[in-house]
Amino acid sequence: MDEALIVRNVSKKFQLHNEPLKRLVSLLVPVFRAKAQVFNALKDVSVELRAGETLGIVGRNGAGKSTLLQIICGTLRPSAGSVQVRGRVAALLELGAGFNTDFTGRENIYLNAAIYGLSRREVDARVDAIIAFAEIGDFIDRPVRVYSSGMFVRLAFSIIAHVDADVLVIDEALAVGDALFSQKCMRFLDDFKKRGSIVFVSHDSGAVSQLCDKALWLHQGEVMLEGGAKQVTEAYLEFLYSETQGDKVVDCNETIAYEQAVEAWHDPRDQLLKNSKYRNDIEIYPFDTTVSSFGTGLVQVVDSCFRDEQNRKLSVVLGGSIVELEVVMNVQSELSNFIVGFLVKDKRGQVLFGDNSLLFKPEGYSVLGNSRYVARLKFLMPYLAQGEYVVSLGIASGTQMDHIQHCWIHDALVFSCQSSHVIHGLFGTPVVGFTLGSVS
Ligand SMILES: Nc1ncnc2c1ncn2[C@@H]1O[C@H](COP(=O)(O)OP(=O)(O)OP(=O)(O)O)[C@@H](O)[C@H]1O
């Protein structure tokens, strides 16, 4: 077959029991089973995935996504219908599944990889790569019962990434909480797409539309829509918004005063947005002094943060407002043509925007050796879509086209945005003026 996965008319019914005793009795005495209340978690779901394709599954809580993934992986039997998968399936579905909590991380690598059918010799050959990808340091030789959930995810993902799977099944909810690692996972998945198929469940429809070729929208156990990832995620978002907003159309004349748009950067919808649940709060995590960097080493960044116009350090930045990105650095030796810049990337590593100090002084600044400097880059933070982001910092000397990096930090600051009105595109940039006139 050309298909990597065929899900045909799959239904799943769960028996619901209020009391554990009744559940036990119904398991032991089949006649009681008929009396239990039945819940249809999946109803006649069909989908096909060709080898090399990526399928995203979206849907609200309780829509049946995890149930479908478990059926695809064979850890749950369907009540009706069938699933055919070609090749080796590796899954990240349930934290700790397949792990022995008394074993160390290293021992669990062998245990898990054996479950996926790898021989000891095959695991010997890739154990170092698995450990390097997981990046959990000395914890690899400690029992996994002492692991944080983030460490579990790191190790579990690293294992499934190295078992030569033909189909990867991933519930992205598990990767939440660690923006840096989920970026790395997304990069890995992008690469994996070249050789295998992926089934990917995510609440982040942006991630689904970027990563996946096709998508399936489940609603109360049924297929609402199946098709191209873009088409399905857009329809799903529209549905979510119409559910939360109703069909109310905001009357622009009533709520937006054109005169408010006097300052170039001011978004006249600001007040409207700030008072809504789409308020674009962007939470900033503190600068991690242990984060790795590369460059000549003549400059070390010792701190970085966001400040508002009153010079207050911010833990939350509001999308659509002016902020200052502060970079504190130690400079070892005198440098000319000095440039400070930044990039903001989404969790797949895609650059959204960035800038540097060259626009202010094309010939660059000069700095003295053995000194500490504070650079501040003031910019308009765009409205960001829900998700996690990182800021990369670069300190260099030279020109835009030709420069030497003294200190480049990939993930200097991490930030996370939980609420947003941005549903199309990667980010929103404020509309600073609008006029409408009739032409005769
Ligand atoms: N073992 C079970 N017994 C009874 N009901 C179950 C069982 N497992 C799942 N369900 C029910 O089936 C429905 C679908 O659950 P499922 O976990 O597949 O949803 P989901 O789309 O993955 O949700 P979420 O996004 O919240 O993870 C839910 O209403 C859930 O309560």
List keywords for this structure.
ATP binding; 2 domains; 25% helix; Rossmann fold; 6-stranded mixed beta sheet; alpha+beta; ABC_transporter-like_ATP-bd; Coagulation Factor XIII, Chain A, domain 1; 11 helices; binds adenosine-5'-triphosphate; 8-stranded antiparallel beta sheet; P-loop_NTPase; ABC transporter ATP-binding protein; 440 residues
Structural commentary:
Pfam families: ABC_tran, Wzt_C. Residues 26-245 form the ABC transporter domain. Belongs to the ABC transporter superfamily. With 440 residues, the chain is an alpha+beta fold. It folds into two domains: 3-242, P-loop containing nucleotide triphosphate hydrolases (Rossmann fold, 3-Layer(aba) Sandwich); 281-417, Coagulation Factor XIII, Chain A, domain 1 (Distorted Sandwich). 37% of the residues are buried. The chain has helices at 20-28, 30-33, 65-73, 105-115, 120-134, 149-161, 179-192, 205-211, 229-245, 252-255, 270-274, and strands at 3-16, 37-50, 54-58, 80-85, 89-92, 167-171, 197-201, 214-219, 222-228, 281-284, 293-294, 299-307, 313-314, 316-318, 322-331, 335-346, 351-356, 365-367, 371-380, 383-384, 387-398, 403-417, 427-428. Strands 10, 11, 14, 16, 17, 18, 21 and 22 form an eight-stranded antiparallel β-sheet that branches. Strands 5-6-7-3-8-9 form a six-stranded mixed β-sheet, with helices on both faces. The protein has a four-stranded antiparallel β-sheet with strand order 13-12-15-19, with no helix packed on it. Residues 14, 16, 39, 41, 59, 61-67 line the site of adenosine-5'-triphosphate (ATP).
